[in-house]
Input
Amino acid sequence: MIAVLQPGPLTGRVTAPPSKSMAHRAVLAAGLARGMSRIRNLEYSQDVQATLNAVRQLGAKVQVREHWADIEGRGGFATLRGPIDCGESGSTLRFLIPVCSLTGQQVRFCGRGRLMQRPQGPYAEIFAGQGRMFCQNEGGILIKGSLRPGEYRLAGDVSSQFISGLLFALPLMLGDSAITITPPFESRSYVDLTLAALADFGVTARFVPQEELPEGAAARLEVPGNQRYHNREYTVEGDYSQGAFFAVLGSLLGGIAVEGLNPASRQGDAAILEILRRCGAKFVRADGAVHFAQNPLTATEIDLADCPDLGPVLMVLGAFCQGQTVIRNAGRLRLKESDRIAAMEEELRRFGAHIQSTADTVTITGGPLVTPGELRGHNDHRVVMALTVAALAAGLPARIRGAEAVAKSWPAFFDVVRGLGGRVTEEAE
Output
């Protein structure tokens, strides 16, 4: 699909969609519990659907309604029939690998896009160290053998999804376990989200106090075994990583409010508001929403270690800020649905933006933008949404090829843009 954008005034309120990160965690925890759980405020993106389908294969009964789902877990595992299709969802895959090992069955995972090319080294090492099968190629991943309780050690500068995956599985094992994380510990906020979800479903795990850390550790998690998940009703909070697209747009244009962003959220992507504040953005919280007013913005330095999903829209922000924006600890963006650094460099240069990168750093110098040629979405939902913000904020017409990628996380994204008065039409490729 090609999204065709035309310039025009934008104003109004946007409701941030449900947090995809928390939806994955709640759905999986509900699937592991015994009894009926109701998960409210769900957006059925392709990624969340992948996790819902996975818990069905584990034996849970799932009934989907318009914005909520009933998930009846069996407190155990069914006989798996066929591969677990994770789509393009890294969270689904990495959360499920340790959990599915507990079935004791041979389990195959498949996916689409770049998913099966994304590195799984930490799991490969863990499985090999315990004499379990772990085979990965472009066609999928094959595992066999139950992981055992005990001591685990993970590098803190790889995806936190590996830590979260272990946290879902370790409480179900017969003995106690611990995870030692070596420095630097990046994306800790995502681990905090996992701990919060576990607690909500009756499972205990905790970080040990700083003074009790072993030498050379950035953090250590203690996870008692012999636990079980408890069914419950759960409401998914709004997503800061998606709300960020309209927070940036509102900061550049004014007249936009974003509602549904919990001020007490543990989401690392909540950093978007502080980043915008440092750039000089004007906004206030009132009536359950964050209201943005137009104001000239200046460049700042940004650390993505704890909020990598903000990367694409922050590169767009940098193109509109006076001065030089430097984004550090960005290297993980190269291992997402696309190489997000290379993709955003290529597409922002079509706007005439001055952007360059190293392996781990992106530098953008603000300046006037020009009407781009046809843009490419690189099969990446966040790239498509970021390019949409760039065109709308600059008041420039644009055509974005591959715009259907937004369905991965926010199927209604372009409808939301239209709700603000945005002129968006769709053409077949």
Summary: The mean pLDDT is 96. The first strand starts at residue 2 and ends at 6.
